[in-house]
Design goal:
Blueprint (H helix, E strand, L loop, with lengths): L2 H12 L6 H5 L2 E8 L17 E7 L5 E5 H7 L4 H13 L7 H9 L5 H9 L8 H18 L2 H14 L4
Antiparallel strand pairs: 1-2, 2-3
Helix pairs in contact: 4-7, 5-6
The structure holds zinc ion.
The site of zinc ion has 8 residues, from helix 1 and strand 3.
Length: 169
C-alpha cells in the first residue's frame, strides 16, 4: 500500500461510523462529480495535489462529505467514477454525441433533467440518425449537463476563453 493510499484509508475510516474498512467503505456514495480548472486545482483526501476531476463522496450514515480525486476513487475505493467522467467529457467536447447511460442516470438523480428528458435521451442513445429536432434537443440537454459538471470556476474560464476567441470583451 502506498503512503497516499494509507492516508486515504485512514481519513475515510476516521469519518465513517464503522471501524472496519470494508463496512466503512460501504457507507460512502459518489454524491457529485465536478471538473475544475488546472488554475484552481484541489487537494485529494490522500494528500495528492493537484486534482481537477473531483468526486464528492457522501457518507449516508453521518452526512459527512469528502473530496477525493477521480483516480483514487476508482483505484482505491473501487467506485466506478472513471466511466462517469469519461461520459461527461464526451458530451463536453461534443454535445451532439449521445450521453452514456451512466451520465443520463446521474443527471436525473441530480435533478438536472426531467423524467421526460431522461426517457428521450435513452430512446435515442443508439440512434445513428436523429431528426434535426431530436438533435437540437439532445444538444440542449447535453450542454446543460456539461455546464453543471464543470465547476463555476471552470465555466468562468471557458466563457472567458470563448469570448476571447470570438473577440468579445
Ligand atoms: Zn488521492
Amino acid at each position: 500500500m502506498t503512503a497516499n493510499q494509507e492516508t486515504l484509508r485512514r481519513e475515510i475510516l476516521r469519518r465513517s461510523v464503522s471501524e472496519t474498512w470494508d463496512s466503512a467503505l460501504a457507507e460512502w456514495d459518489l454524491h457529485r462529480i465536478e471538473f475544475t480548472s488546472l488554475r484552481e486545482p484541489e487537494v485529494c483526501l490522500c494528500g495528492h495535489f493537484p486534482i481537477v476531476e473531483l468526486c464528492y463522496l457522501l457518507n449516508r450514515h453521518n452526512g459527512v462529505e469528502v473530496l477525493v480525486g477521480n483516480v483514487c476513487v476508482q483505484r482505491f475505493l473501487g467506485i466506478p467514477s472513471e466511466t462517469l467522467f469519461r461520459g461527461a467529457k464526451r458530451i463536453m467536447f461534443d454535445p451532439s454525441k449521445a450521453a452514456s447511460q451512466g451520465v443520463i442516470e446521474y443527471a436525473r438523480r441530480q435533478g438536472w433533467i426531467t423524467d421526460w428528458e431522461r426517457d428521450f435521451c435513452e430512446s435515442v442513445i443508439r440512434k445513428r440518425k436523429l431528426s434535426s429536432a431530436q438533435l437540437g434537443k439532445r444538444i440542449e440537454i447535453n450542454r446543460r449537463i456539461a455546464e453543471r459538471v464543470a465547476s463555476a470556476r471552470l465555466n468562468a474560464v471557458t466563457k472567458m476563453e470563448v469570448a476571447k476567441t470570438r473577440g468579445l470583451p
